[in-house]
Amino acid sequence: PFYTLESGEISNQVRLRMVNRGTDPAEFRVAAAGHEGVRLIVDWTSVTLKPNESTTVGVAVALPADAFDARGRCPVEITVSAPEFSKTMEYLMLGPTNTGPRKDAAP
Predict the structure, then answer these.
(1) Mean pLDDT to the nearest integer, 29-35
(2) 81-100, pLDDT tens digit by residue?
(3) What is the dihedral of CA 70, 87, 57, 104, to 10 degrees?
(4) CA angle centred on 69, ends 68 and 74, rounded to 5°
(5) Backbone angles phi and psi of 57, in degrees to 5
(6) What is the full DSSP assignment across 22-40?
(7) How would you list the strands of the sheet with 54-63, edge to edge?
(8) How far apart, in Å, are the Cα atoms of 84 and each of 29, 31, 58?
(9) How far apart are CA 18 and CA 4, in angstroms?
(10) Nearest to 99 by CA among 72, 63, 62
(11) What is the pTM of this model?
(12) Residue 27 — very low, low, confident or very high, per pLDDT cuts 50/70/90?
């Protein structure tokens, strides 16, 4: 369920469904937080949806390999936002098991 990137980072694939329930077009953005070094790998900066339009996008979330605990898990937050909307979801990334000290989560 995880990939090791050339950089040594660990990546998980996430699919996000976005729906514009507003009456005007909306530009949606995605961000990741919750741990030092977390980043998104996407080939777009935002997604614009017409009113009542929906789409599903793929996002790769990457973390340093030493971010994972002894069970191979690391929680991160993924936020989807638009001008009048924001939702943050916790996502439990899966990666290699680590027996050494884990890097602390970002403040």
Answers:
(1) 96
(2) 998 899 999 999 999 997 66
(3) -20
(4) 50
(5) -120, 150
(6) SSS-EEEEEEEESSTT-EE
(7) 3-4, 10-19, 54-63, 39-41
(8) 12, 16, 23
(9) 28
(10) 72
(11) 0.85
(12) very high
Rg (CA), the chain: 15
Tokens at 88, concatenated: 């943050």
Q: Which residues pair with 90 in a beta bridge?
A: 77
Q: pLDDT band for position 103 (50/70/90)?
A: low
Query: Stretch 2-30: mean pLDDT, rounded?
Result: 96
CB atoms closer than 10 angstroms to residue 11: 18
Q: Confirm if 62 and 52 have CB atoms less than 8 A apart.
A: no
**In the sheet where 85-94 sits, what is the strand order?**
47-49, 26-33, 73-82, 85-94
> Is residue 102 classed as helix, strand or coil in its secondary structure?
coil
Spatial contact of 38 and 31, defined as CB atoms under 8 Å apart: no
Mean pLDDT over all residues of the chain? Answer: 92
Give me the residues paired with residue 15 across strands: 58
